[in-house]
Design goal:
Elements (H helix, E strand, L loop, with lengths): L5 E4 L5 H4 L11 E6 L3 H15 L8 E6 L3 H8 L4 E4 L6 H10 L3 E4 L10 H13 L4 E3 L7 H10 L2 H4 L12 E10 L1 E2 L2 E2 L20 H12 L7 H4 E13 L1 H8 L12 E2 L2 E14 L2 E12 L7 E7 L3 E7 L8 E6 L5 H18 L4 E4 L4 E4 L8 H17 L8 H21 L3
Parallel strand pairs: 1-2, 1-4, 2-3, 4-5, 5-6, 7-13
Antiparallel strand pairs: 7-14, 8-9, 10-12, 11-12, 12-13, 14-15, 15-16, 16-18, 17-18
């Protein structure tokens, strides 16, 4: 396989740097960066420099920076590498992805690829172009690599323990997911500075179209592994609503470091308060299974707190849940709760049988009996954290480059289904906002 040479395009989000948090044997250390000169580029360079300077396992990246307003045209003309890495402004991202594919570059791009349903044809065009040119175009779905997601998927697919998924109803869905993120936080041990444009919902997207992309992806990935989901026949957005998180000017300054709101946010101001529409609730049906997603952003976690996550899959024999809250010390844990109609000891036996097969790939995974339900015990060695998942996605991407025929056939239709839910969900929510 020829040497892989990364090109980073307009790195406006810290996820671009996390792709380079470690070195890869197949990837050249010299990375070309094309971007407009400004704070986004400077912040990216600082993060890579920090990885190179750290005391534990420092990286050895070399960056060649091409700064200018015509950065995309120059990238297409120069083509100093063969893989374009994108993580930044989401409006117009699909146009940049198309330009890279048309230039013959593979693409590894952070979510979301599109924000509005009008761009679904562009997404289809990009995926078709990648196919026809034998290029790999992959979005960065880090949550598939979280240990609790992997184990939850395994138990949802274990009929002896889980049974089959309960279709439910809009009022009592078969799947419920809730994700709470915080605007003010630490990344790689330092305070995260978000650019002012991050708060422009037409640039960054709303909750469902951004973070919600992961949740929609996980539902398909867990319920129908290795199966293509077709938009026309399998997906129906039923209802959605949105509401803002209100930030004072001091809150905005603490997150961005900016002294004032940029002009692009003036329409979202009420006095000195910014009404940031970053909360979405959506109900949709996936192959007849009712799904409810609640995607939220708040200002800052309470002392000792952190992001929270809830994922509930209701089966005919038991519920399989991931909870990440105060009781779990903000670390995701996996629970199995037998239905009242099931014999408790029988469920314990089926869990033990499933764990024997799981221990081949995950040695040390066990179960704790809590009296009324079970918690899957997970060794700390598997809890590598969100930032490390970017390297895991990148390694999978590199494996696809080494053997392009291994790219799974269902990824393409499922990307279309995923972005149909997120874009149509946001569109629906804007018609029924609180």
């Amino acid at each position: 396989m020829p040497e892989i040479r990364f090109i980073t395009l307009n790195p406006g989000h810290f996820h671009a740097a996390l792709v380079q948090k470690e070195m890869y044997e197949q990837v050249a250390p010299r990375v070309h960066v094309y971007a407009p000169l400004g704070p986004d580029l400077i912040a990216h360079l600082g993060r890579i420099a920090g990885f190179n300077a750290r005391s534990a396992q420092p990286t050895q990246w070399e960056l060649e920076v091409h700064a200018g307003a015509d950065y995309l045209q120059r990238l297409v003309q120069d083509k100093p590498g063969n893989v374009a890495v994108l993580a930044g402004r989401n409006a117009g991202k699909i146009d940049a992805i198309l330009a890279c594919l048309e230039a013959g570059l593979h693409v590894l791009a952070d979510k979301p690829w599109i924000l509005v349903p009008e761009d679904l044809p562009k997404l289809q065009k990009a995926l078709d172009l990648a196919d026809s040119c034998r290029l790999i175009a992959l979005d960065i779905m880090t949550e598939r690599y979280e240990i609790t997601s992997l184990l939850q998927r395994a138990f949802v697919q274990d009929e002896a323990t889980f049974g089959t998924i309960i279709p439910g109803s809009p009022e009592d869905p078969g799947v419920v997911m809730e994700s709470v993120h915080y605007l003010k936080k630490l990344v790689a041990g330092v305070p995260l500075r978000r650019p002012g444009w991050f708060f422009d919902i037409h640039e960054q997207g709303e909750a469902l179209s951004d973070v919600g992309t992961h949740l929609v992806d996980l539902v398909m990935w867990m319920l129908f592994p290795n199966q293509a989901v077709e938009v026309q026949n399998d997906v129906c957005v039923l209802s959605a609503k949105r509401w803002p998180t209100v930030l004072g000017k001091s809150d905005f300054q603490a997150i961005t470091g900016d002294t004032d709101y940029p002009r692009g946010l003036h329409d979202a101001l009420d006095g000195d308060d910014l009404h940031y529409y970053c909360n979405t609730l959506v109900n949709y049906a996936l192959r007849g299974v009712h799904v409810k997603l609640n995607v939220l952003w708040d200002f800052e976690a309470s002392p000792g707190g952190g992001d929270t996550h809830l994922a509930v899959f209701r089966g005919t024999r038991s519920r399989v849940e991931v909870r990440q809250g105060r009781e779990e010390k903000y670390q995701p844990e996996l629970y199995i709760i037998p239905n009242k109609t099931m014999e408790y000891t029988l469920v314990r036996r089926t869990i033990d049988l499933k764990l024997r097969t799981l221990q081949v790939d995950f040695p040390g995974v066990g179960v704790t009996d809590l009296g009324t339900h079970f918690r899957v015990s997970i060794p700390n060695s598997y809890r590598v954290g969100h930032e490390a998942h970017f390297a895991e996605v990148t390694k999978q991407f590199l494996r696809y480059l080494g053997n392009q025929d291994t790219l799974l056939a269902w990824e393409k239709p499922n990307m279309m289904a995923k972005y149909f839910v997120t874009t149509r969900g946001v569109e629906t929510s804007r018609k029924t906002q609180i």
